Amino acid sequence: MNWKFTPIALPVLIALFIAIFVLVYTWQRRTMRGARPLLPLMGGVVIWLLGSTLEALTFDANTRLFWSNFQFIGVVMVPTAWFMFSLVFTDHAAVLTRTNLTLLLIMPLLTLILLWTSPWQQFFQVSKVLNTSGPTPYWDWVPGPGFWIHTAYSYLLTIAGVVILARAYRQSARLHRRQISVMLVGAVVPWIVNILFVVVRVSPFDYTAISFLITGTAVAWG
After folding, report:
1. How far is Cα 86 from Cα 156, in angstroms, rounded to an integer?
2. pLDDT tens digits, one per residue of 178-219
3. Rounded-to-integer distance, Cα 216 and Cα 211, Å
4. SS3 3
């Protein structure tokens, strides 16, 4: 394996350590309202950032592809966990029945299966080639319909969580409103960053995982 420290590796590595700290902080306060669904949210961010860090440190295409796929475990966890957190925090945990949880997990699991079997089908991504022409390698990739279905599902859960918290904001006391407002800001930032990367394609590098630290830190603070 060809390991090398790249410019993007440092901020991702710092973000990873912060995410681990927030995860431990949340675990220590797991008895508080909303803390338990925050654990898989931050766990997903940690997995996402761990994969991003190890991907950023290698130039070997096969190894880099493995870590790129590995971080998708966190990618599919985060929107689902965010939606679950919003329900629990606003006292709507009764909605999370065993049947509904199963339905919520179908799309993330299907996404991972499609991703890891991409060499044999092009439904999730049509092509993915490592570009090493610059100081930091990046993927030249063409997403397939499966990727856009996953993206739409993730955005839907993110928006639903924001709407649930926004409705709770209108019905809450002043102190509780301050908590919710911090969480809403933390949720909107990574959503915008991801849209800029996935839809607008302003950069070949995905900074969504780093921006999700704002979400985790804001929610933990709240």
Report:
1. 13
2. 777 777 777 777 777 777 766 666 566 667 767 766 766 676
3. 9
4. strand
